[in-house]
Amino acid sequence: MSRTGPERASSAAGAAPMIDIRHVRKQFDVRGGGEALVLDDINLSIAANQFLSIVGRSGCGKTTLLNIIAGLDAASGGEVLIAGRRVVGPGQGQGMVFQQHALFPWLTALENVVFGARSLPLAKAEKIDRARELLQLVGLEASAGKYPREMSGGMQQRIAIARALALDPDILLMDEPFGALDELTRIEMQQELLRIWEARRKTVVFITHSIGEALTLSDRVILLAPHPGRVARDIAIDLPRPRSRTDRRFNEFYEQIWSGLSS
User: Fold this and answer.
1) Alpha carbon distance 71, 19 (integer Å)
2) Are the CB atoms for 242 and 236 separated by under 8 Å?
3) Where are the alpha helices (DSSP H) in the chain?
4) 3-state class of 115 per DSSP?
5) Looking only at Cα atoms, what is the longest distance across the chain?
6) From CA 114, how far away is CA 246, in angstroms rounded?
7) Label partner for 2 (CA 20 to 30 A): which of 117, 121, 195, 253?
8) Model confidence pLDDT, tens digit, residues 235-256
């Protein structure tokens, strides 16, 4: 099933969305005067536990939209609701994972994950237990005492995901988290992320330039058109998992998204 056009699409009929983006627009001041419109009238409803990817050309406003959902940036107009509450800043149950892992190099893997739980009202021992459980979830319990410099890029991103999960967020916001990895590691991390998502069932908003990555991971793919950023297509990916890139319908979806990016 494919939905096109800028209208808000509800991903679960009759169910209150986990994320509700209503008429969001964003403009920035331009040096020398004037304003640049980056996002215009973005409307999306995202169901709880849904895996949604956003694709689009560079400069279409993908990261800006993610930062607005996270409460790291304010919209110039419209609003974002998380579980019915208006986003007015960070800290409404969103965990973030960036393209660069942003781990603290002076902390071990375990200490980095414990840091993610720093604001929880738990005893230190409980935070350490939670961090060890998350390291086990991402398959790195044996690397608890290692520093980031002693781990590969894929391992570092697993630690970053574990740290984002330390607060047990309802929503995981991911800004091209595998973009800096080599192709084989990237595919392995996609499989790892799906395993973690199936185990914890978070609502995921995933930014990527890769059509294949979006199709491998997602329940829905949103195509943002640029200048200004707007929802051009909203495509439900009704393929069973695990997905094969040689599958006929996978490639039909690929061509549909590619044609949207090329138009």
Assistant:
1) 12
2) no
3) 62-70, 109-116, 124-137, 153-165, 183-200, 211-217, 248-262
4) helix
5) 55
6) 41
7) 195
8) 999 999 999 999 999 999 999 9
Q: What is the pLDDT of residues 101-140, one digit of tens each?
A: 689 999 999 999 999 898 888 899 999 999 999 999 999 9
Q: Could you give the 3-state DSSP secondary structure of residue 199?
A: helix
- Domains defined along the chain, listed by start: 2-93+169-262 (3.40.50.300)
Distance between CA 123 and CA 117 in Å, rounded?
11
DSSP secondary structure letters along 123-165: -HHHHHHHHHHHHHHTT-GGGTT--GGGS-HHHHHHHHHHHHH
What torsion, rounded to 10 degrees, do the Cα atoms 62, 66, 69, 74 define? -80
Backbone angles phi and psi of 251, in degrees to 5: -70, -30
Provide the whole-model pTM. 0.90
